[in-house]
Amino acid sequence: MTLTLLAALFVCILVVAVLYSSVGHGGASGYIALMALFALPTASIKPTALVLNILVAGIATCTYRRAGQFRWSVFWPFAVTSIPMSFVGGALQLPAIYFKPLLGAVLLFAAFRLVYREVGNPVPPSSPPQAVAAAIGMVLGFVSGLIGVGGGIFLSPLLLLFGWATPRQTAGISALFILVNSIAGLLGHVSSLGNVMPGSAWLAAAAVLGGLLGSALGSRLLPVPAILRTLSLVTFSAALKLILT
Questions:
Q1: Alpha-carbon torsion 227, 232, 238, 241, what sign?
Q2: Which of 39, 100, 56 shows the shortest CA–CA distance to 206?
Q3: pTM of the full predicted structure?
Q4: Which of 9, 32, 51, 80 is the most exposed place for a label (fewest CB within 10 A)?
């Protein structure tokens, strides 16, 4: 990796980490989008995105939990099945011919959800039925491990759609969900760490700085609708690149 490319990636990762962590996400779909746009090796995308995701999601988890924006009763039924299934998904390595279109489809969904993300929840939140949450967690965990994301992009809209958490609680719950699934997915294919890109220490530093700043600012100070539209545009561009090439 050239110094110019590394510097460009550092700045982009920093910006993405700030934006995603400000809405309670780890940013894996954003990192994947960037790496796809920069035409980096497919084998490096999944492990690198998971490592960066773990760093940012860990910071976001601590921040939102300290702020009291977390509900254990909502989190654990999803996590109890998602964690082992994320491990299973992480152990699978799809050939590029399948991985790229599947990843592109996931990014298209992510782009759509970023634009149409629910920002309000007028009714008091309720807890999800445990059996339903466990079944959903199983599916989300497997897909998350297979693709190399934490699953927050899928869990967040469900929590808001069914009224299982307020927007701020959703951010806190999703942050920890992303953290545990990213760790499980990476452990499921720990040998893939050998494919992490050279210079990733600098990218990790960018992610940590961005995660600290974004989590501290939160959605109270940053223009969230504009942030989500920008992230959606980047993600959509990467999805098209993956699907069409």
A1: negative
A2: 56
A3: 0.79
A4: 80
C-alpha to C-alpha distance for 208 and 12, rounded to whole angstroms: 13
**DSSP-assigned states of every residue in 124-140:** ---PPPHHHHHHHHHHH
Task: Determine contact, residues 174/24, Cβ cutoff 8 Å.
Answer: yes
Helix (H) or strand (E) holding 178: helix 167-188
Task: Judge contact between 148 and 102, C-beta under 8 A.
Answer: no
The span from the CA of 89 to the CA of 99, in Å, is 13
**195: nearest Cα among 90, 48, 38:** 48
Task: List the end-to-end C-alpha distance of the chain, in Å, as a whole number.
Answer: 22
Q: List, in order, residues 6 or more apart from 227 with CB less than 8 Å away.
A: 19, 22, 23
Asked whether the beta carbons of 61 and 75 are under 8 A apart, the reply is no
Q: pLDDT, tens digit, for every residue of 126-173?
A: 889 999 999 999 999 998 888 888 888 788 878 877 889 887 788 889
Residues 6+ apart with CB under 8 A from 222: 19, 22, 214
Which tokens belong to 193? 């760490």
Q: Which amino acid is at 24?
A: G
